[in-house]
Amino acid sequence: MLRSILFIAILVGTLSASAQQERKYIRQGNREYEKATKDSLKVDSVCYQNAEDDYRKALEKEPNNWGAIYNLANSLYRQKKYDDATKQYMAVAGMENKNSDELAMAYHNLGNSLLQTNKLSEAIEAYKNALRKNPNDFETKYNLAWAQNKLKQQQNQQQNQDQDQDKEDKDQQKDEQQQNKQDQQNQDQQKKDQEKQQQQQSQQQQTEKKDQISKEDAARILEALQNDEKEVKEKVQKQKVQPKKRTTQKDW
Domain range for residue 67? Predict the structure, then answer.
């Protein structure tokens, strides 16, 4: 819960015109702030904005006014301007203030603002600083325990996610290795099949080449056959024209 205690600058002695204006703006800002918080179920952003404007005017008169900076941080927090509120809480927590309770409230609200932006480690440190100033603050102890438990849950979740991612990466790497191995086996088998096919084609070509007769060989064979046929015809022709021998019989 936000510590919404509002402060007014406490001035001793006669107030200067500038100091009177500063205090006036702080009072106006406090009225606007309280007006906005009357109905806890309704967020009156207009009144919180008006309060912010009045606190900033007060700080123009006195930039180091602890109460004005603290109240400004609260008005920013109520408008859910958590980053801006964090800057103001950090500024006021770093300022000199002998009142431990006030510093404890600043650190407590700083922890709440950091918690809203999920900066758990920083929020935990802010709550610890608040407890150093006010060790008996039960609400701060509760917020510290809640933030520590939330951080532990996130760390465990992140660890589980990292483990799951690591397992997924290893499984993917294993699948890739198996796929690469299978691809290599397929490539090797494909290469063997191609080599076998090429060998078979080469053998077939050689066999066909043996069975084939070149044109020159066919021409020579044909020419030889023709010559043989010619010689046979000539022999037959000679035998036809050769006269028969007469047989002379002697008259004894």
Answer: 1-80
